[in-house]
Structure formats: structure tokens, C-alpha cells
Amino acid sequence: MHKIKVTSSLLFIVFVNFLFLAKYTARFTSYSLMISLAISIIYCLFYYYKDVLKISDKKLNLILLLAIPCYVIGAAALFRLFPLSGVNVDRYSVITSFWDNFFQSKYVYLAKSHQGNMPGPMPFYFILALPFYFLRELGYFSIMGPVVFIVALKYAKIEGSRIIAGILMLLGSGFMFWELVSRSNIVLNSSLILLSLLFFIKSIAIEKKTHILFNGVIIGLLLSTRNVLIIPYIVLFLHTLKAKNYSITDMIQIAMLIVFIFALTFAPFVLHHFSEFQKINPFIIQSSFLMPGWLSITCVVFTLSALFLTKSYADVFYYSGLYLFITILTYLIYHICIDGFNNSLYNSSVDISYFLLCIPFFMYCLFLEKSVPKGVVDVKS
């Protein structure tokens, strides 16, 4: 069963990479599908021959020490090669307009990007981006995605050669190239969720009440980024209750703290603009941005089936990726039915970048040595 999940994780990643390659190489060549297919095959071959990489954990630290600065310098060069003026994605502009409004004492959710879009993400998303707003280059915010993913792999005690393979697959993908060029930050957002899941699972073994506090605060903050990222937490909490690692009382305490911290992140932005908040807010913006509200709710409710599917904490990562993938695939299919295939994919009525939400979870599943991650206490239900 573990092999099936690993193989399907690879196929999902390849599918997302193929989408990006097919869409963006089509702007330069009529052979885009053949090129995308060839690269996808090479991608799969690299994964299946990854074990030729033999790197000790000691050497890994040295490699990372040298590689991360090179990666940052390379990304900085990429930003110069692809300036913001040539980027047809407005995530950087959404962040800029949000903080411009804030520092002008205007209501932040009435801000508009250079493409006329209002801010959809929750407040903590923008708080994370604030240092990079001051730097005037939000590309450095995007750079943090692979870095956080590396931290997650090391925190999970994945062996050195597998971490290197994971980094190469992530940085060698078409979707990560797009993420950096467009100054997007979805991989970062999702990698932070992955890291928080690992922290939650590992903290179960410690049995300290302080970890209920830490988990509540961390999850409350990270939920204040994108609505759809509630899905991995639903999967996590359902399995935790199923495995009886936390009592219902403990989970209620965590839930109450999460709600409190989540609400607290809105305070600086709503305090003097409550009437505007009632009219327009990220819940209203996001509820109609991807697909109709009823369809979004259906996808979240479908996530409850994880209660019957997860058998171990390793499954939490796989099904988190799977339910996110299904949600975005539903969004894609919905728009194909409404707008047609070409308009949805090639004319961008669908934002395929949301598929990147599932990538860190599937990438993580690829490099687990067995069904249970190292260092993670697991109680099979």
C-alpha cells in the first residue's frame, strides 16, 4: 500500500509539472506537448534512480551551507532577467497594494492590484510578506518556499541523499521555475503547513500541555493565510482523534485557541474599518474566486472521509496532498465545463498555480523510507 501511495504521489507531481510545462512552453513552440512529455519521463527516471546519490548526513549540512547561498544568488539573477514589468501574475501586486493601503490608513481589503484584483488571502499571509514588502522585491518571499521545505525534511529526519534528491526535483521542476519568476509564494505557504503538521505529530510524544498552546498558536496563524489550507488540518485532527492521541477535551482546547489566534490576526486591519469589513472581506472574496461556495463546501465536507482512510500519521501527509489536489482539480474541471479547455488552461481563466498547494505533501511522501516517518510517534488506529 505504501508503494501505491508513493507511485501516485509521483504521478500527481508529474501531472502538475506537465500542466505548467504544456501551458508555458506552448508560448514558444508548437512542440510543447512532446517537450513536456519528454521532460516528465526524465523526471520520473530521475526519481527511480535517485538512490545512486549516496550522501551522508554530515556531507548534507556542508552541501546545504554552500547550495543555499548559490540558490539565493541564482534566484536574484532570475529576478533581474524576468523583471516585474514582464510578469502577468499579480500576487506581488496584491501584497504591495494591501500594505500601501494599510500605511495610508485605508481599509486593506479594498486595495486593488495592478490587474484590478482585491486581496483574497487572510491577514497573516500579508504579515509574513511584510519584510519583503520593505525590501521592494517580493521574489525573496518566494525563495523561502524551497528553504522551508528543506527544513521540513531535515526536521522529519529524512536521510541526506533523499533530501538532495527532493531539492533537485523541486528546483528542477517547471512549476518551481514559474513560482520564482512570477514571485508567487504558494510552495512556501504549503511548506509551512507541512512543517506545522510535523511539529504537531512529534509533539504528541512529549505529552506537555505547553505543546497544546504552541500548536494552537501556530495553526491559528497559518490558517490565517488561505482558506483551503484548512484541509490538511481536518485530516490531521480526524486521525489524531481516531488514534486517541489527544482527548476530545484537548482537541476542543486547541480548536478554541486556534479560533482565538485566527481572529486576533484580523484585529489590526479591521479595528477602524469594521463597517467596510462587513461588506468586503477575504471570506467573501475567496468564496467566489475559485468556484461557487457550495462546491467549495462540498470539497471540504468530502475531506471528512479521511477519518476512514488514514491508518497512520504517514497517511496524514498523503491524504492532505490528495484532498488538496482533488479540490483544485474540481476547480479546474468546473471552469473547463463553463469556459472550455483552451480558455481555462491556455487563456488562464483557471489559475493552475493552486495545484502547487499539494506539491510539498506529495514531495514529502516520495522520500519517506517506510510507511512511518523517522522520529514520528505513530499509534495505528
Kindly summarize this structure in a few lines.
The chain is mainly α and 381 residues long.
Any chance you could write out the topology, listing elements then pairs?
Blueprint: H1 2-25, H2 32-48, H3 57-81, H4 91-103, H5 123-135, H6 139-155, H7 160-171, H8 174-181, H9 186-203, H10 209-223, H11 230-243, H12 248-264, H13 267-270, H14 274-279, H15 282-289, H16 293-302, H17 306-309, H18 313-339, H19 341-345, H20 359-366
Q: H/E order of the elements?
A: HHHHHHHHHHHHHHHHHHHH
Q: Output the structural class.
A: mainly alpha
| Global mean pLDDT | 87
What ranges have pLDDT less than 50 throughout 5 or more consecutive residues?
A: none
Instruction: Please give the number of β-strands.
Output: 0
**Range of helix content:** 55-70%
Please tell me how large the radius of gyration is: 21 Å
- Domain unit count: 1
What is the count of helical runs?
20
What are the salient characteristics of this protein?
single chain, 381 residues, mainly alpha, globular
Characterise the protein shown here.
With 381 residues, this protein is an all-alpha fold. It has one domain. Helices cover 70% and strands 0% of the residues. The chain has 20 helices and no strands. It has helices at residues 2-25, 32-48, 57-81, 91-103, 123-135, 139-155, 160-171, 174-181, 186-203, 209-223, 230-243, 248-264, 267-270, 274-279, 282-289, 293-302, 306-309, 313-339, 341-345, 359-366. Helix 1 (2-25) packs antiparallel against helix 2 and helix 18 (313-339) crosses helix 20 (359-366). The protein starts with a helix and ends in a 15-residue tail after the last helix. The mean pLDDT is 87.
